[in-house]
Specification:
Fumarylacetoacetate hydrolase, domain 2, 9 helices, Fumarylacetoacetase-like_C (chains A, B), SH3 type barrels, tyrosine catabolism (chains A, B), metal-binding (chains A, B), fumarylacetoacetase activity (chains A, B), alpha+beta, Fumarylacetoacetase_N (chains A, B), homodimer
C-alpha cells in the first residue's frame, strides 16, 4: 500500500477534546506513538523534541515502528486510530524559514518574463543557491484557508492582490541544531525529513516592493505545508544534475542528494502541472551548506525550501506566473473556465510521489 | 540618575549557578522581579510570558515597581542585586525578525554609493517602508563575540569578508500577538518596548548575493541587541518628519510615534558617529502597520528594526559603508589608525539616550 512500512511519515494529530501529540501515518490510520512506544517525547504537541534527538534515534525509532507494524499486531492495533477520527496540526514549531531559488528553469522563466530581451539568469545564480528568509509565523498546515492579501500594487494603488499565485516546493526540516560561528556538518546529520510546501505569492505586491531587499509582504501572508513529514531515510536518492561552472569547494556534492520526487499541481481538482524535482539544479545538501557557510547556526525546527520546482516542459512549471506567462496565456480548465491567477474560492492541491512512496499533499483554498 | 524610576528597562539575568529570570534595571542594580513582586511570570527565562500579558499589565507592573522603589525600600532592597554579580542574557525569545530601511539619508547614501549618477531612491521608497525578514536564530545579546563570516565575494572568489560593517538601529519588540488574516491593531497595544540593535553586515557577500531576493548570508551570521528593553511608556515621543507624497491610508500616522533618541557609535572607544533617530522618515507605527497590512500575524517575541539610522550630516551616519563611502574615505582614529571596514579585534559599541533617559548600549567584538 502507498502508506506502508517503507513510508511512515510523522505528524501531529489530536482526537476531539484531547491535546495534540505525535503520530505516524500507516495506511488510513495514525499510530499513537506515545502509547505504542511508551515514550513521552511523542506526547509533545510538536515533532521538535523528537527531531532534536538526532539521526541514530530517528533510525532506531523507525526500525522499532516497522517491527511493531510487521510483527504481532494484536498489541499495536489498538493504538492505530482511523484518520477520519483525528485532526491534523502543524507538525513542528518552525524556527527560521528560508526559501531558496534552486530551479534553473524557474529562475530562467521569471527572468524572461520580468526582463525580456536580457540574460534571464543573474550573474550569481550558477555560483550559489540564491535564498532569503521568509516569515516563520505564517507557516500553516495543509487545509488552512488563505486570505487574499491587500497591499500596495504600485504608486498610489492599494487593494487586494490581483495576481495571487502558488509555488510548488519541497521543504526540508532541520532536527539537529548547529553552533553559531561554524558551518553545519553533514546534511543527513541535521535534516530530519521532507514536507510539501506551497509558497503562496502575491505577484503584484511583490513586484512593487522587492527592490532592493527582496520579497516581503508578497510572500509573508501564508506558506502552507503538508501535515506528514517524510523521513529522509525513506526517500530514494539520485545524483543531482551536472553543474557548470563547478561550484565552490563548500558546495561540492559529497553524496547523492538529488531526489526523484514527482509533483502534481491541481487547481480545483484538475492537474495543471507536473513539476519534476529531479530537474532541480541545486540539491538540498548544497542549500544547507550554503545556509551555514557564514557561521549562521541551525535550530531544531528550521525549515528551508527549494523554491518553485519547474521542469523544462511547459506542463512542468510549478507556478501560475510561469504556466500562464504572467497571466497572458491563461490555463484552460474543464467547463470552459480559465485562470491567469487564482480567484476567490479556488482550491490548490500539491501532491507528490517518490517511486512507490507517496508524500501526500498540501492543500489550501482562497477564502 | 540615568537608570532611575522613569526608566526601568526589563532584562533577563542570572546569578552563578542559578537559572535566568526576569529583572528590571535600577541604578547599578537589577531588581529580581519574581521575588519582589511574588509573580511567577518573572521566573521565566525570557520576557515572552510577561510581554504576552498586554498593555494594561505592562502599565500596572511598571507602576507597582515604581511604588516599591520610591516607597519603603527596606523590603525591596534585599531583591536588588548588584549588576557585577549577574550575567545578562538574551532578554526574549525572538519569533520573527524583520529589518526595515526607514532612513531617507541611509537609503539615499547607499543608492549614491552603489548606483552613482542615477536616482538614489528606488521608486517604491517614498510609498512604503521597505523591509525584509532576517534570521531570528542568530539574534544575540550584547557582548557576544562576532565571528567574521566567510562567503562568496564574487564569481570564483571565496573567503573571509573584507567589508565587515555595522548598522546602528533601534529594534521594536512585540508583546501581544495578532491573528492571521487581518492587520494588527494600534501600535501601543502590540509593542512592548525598544532595544538597541547592531545589524552586522558583510558588504561584499551581500553585494554578490542580493539580486533579486535580497540580503541573506551577508546579514544572517549575527545581529546583536542590547540586554535592556526600554518600555514604550518610558520613551518621549515627537512627531515624525513630513512625508511627501502622503502615504496610503493604512500608513497615515494616528499619533506621534517619532522618537527623540540620540545614538552614538563607538569604534574601539572612540565616537565615530552620532545618528539621530528623530530624522527617520518612516515611524515605528508605520512599520507595524505595513508589516501586517497583508494579513501576516504577529507573535509574542517578534522583533522589527528600523534599518540603519543616518542623519543628514556626514558625522551622523550609522554604518561604516556610509561613513567611509564604501571604504574610500577611511575613518581616522586616535593614534593614527584608520578604518574602512572592521578589522579583527575591533570592538563596536552603540549607545543611546532619549532626553534624560539612557537606553544603555549594545556591544560586540570581532573575534
Amino acid at each position: 500500500m502507498s502508506w506502508g512500512v517503507d513510508n511512515l511519515p510523522y505528524g501531529v494529530f489530536s482526537r476531539p477534546g484531547q491535546r495534540p501529540r505525535v503520530g505516524v501515518r500507516y495506511g488510513d490510520k495514525v499510530l499513537d506513538l506515545a502509547a505504542a512506544l511508551h515514550d513521552e517525547v511523542f506526547a509533545a504537541s510538536s515533532l521538535n523534541p523528537f527531531m532534536a534527538r538526532g539521526r541514530a534515534a530517528w533510525h532506531d525509532t523507525r526500525t522499532l515502528i516497522q517491527n511493531k507494524l510487521t510483527g504481532d499486531v494484536s498489541v499495536t492495533e489498538r493504538h492505530l486510530i482511523p484518520l477520519d477520527q483525528v485532526r491534523l496540526h502543524l507538525p513542528f514549531e518552525v524556527a527560521d524559514y528560508v526559501d531558496f531559488y534552486c530551479s534553473l528553469e524557474h529562475a530562467s522563466n521569471i527572468g524572461r518574463i520580468l526582463r525580456p530581451g536580457s540574460e534571464p539568469l543573474q550573474p550569481n545564480w550558477r555560483h550559489l543557491p540564491v535564498g532569503y528568509h521568509g516569515r516563520a509565523g505564517t507557516v500553516v498546515v495543509s487545509g488552512t484557508p488563505v486570505r487574499r492579501p491587500h497591499g500596495q500594487l504600485g504608486p498610489g494603488s492599494f487593494g487586494p492582490s490581483g495576481k495571487l499565485d502558488i509555488e510548488a516546493e519541497l521543504g526540508f526540516v532541520v532536527g539537529v541544531p548547529s553552533a553559531m560561528g561554524s558551518p553545519a556538518g553533514a546534511f543527513e546529520d541535521h535534516v530530519f525529513g521532507v514536507t510539501l510546501l506551497n509558497d503562496w505569492s502575491a505577484r503584484d505586491i511583490q513586484a512593487f516592493e522587492y527592490v532592493p531587499l527582496g520579497p516581503f509582504l508578497g510572500k509573508s501572508f501564508a506558506t502552507s505545508i503538508s501535515p506528514w513529514i517524510t523521513p529522509l531515510e525513506a526517500l530514494p536518492r539520485i545524483p543531482g544534475p551536472v553543474q557548470e561552472p563547478e561550484p565552490a569547494a563548500y558546495l561540492r556534492r559529497r553524496a547523492d542528494w538529488g531526489l526523484d520526487v514527482s509533483l502534481e499541481v491541481l487547481l480545483n481538482g484538475e492537474v495543471v502541472a507536473r513539476p519534476p524535482y529531479s530537474a532541480m539544479y541545486w540539491t538540498p545538501d548544497q542549500m544547507l551548506a550554503h545556509l551555514t557557510v557564514n557561521g549562521a547556526s541551525l535550530r531544531t525546527g528550521d525549515l528551508f525550501a527549494s523554491g518553485t520546482i519547474s521542469g523544462a516542459e511547459p506542463g512542468e512549471r510549478g507556478s501560475l506566473m510561469e504556466l500562464t506567462w504572467n497571466g497572458t496565456e491563461p490555463v484552460k480548465l474543464a467547463g470552459g473556465e480559465t485562470r491567469g491567477f487564482l480567484e476567490d474560492g479556488d482550491t490548490v492541491v500539491i501532491r507528490a510521489t517518490a517511486g512507490d512512496l507517496t508524500l501526500g499533499e498540501v492543500s489550501g483554498s482562497v477564502g
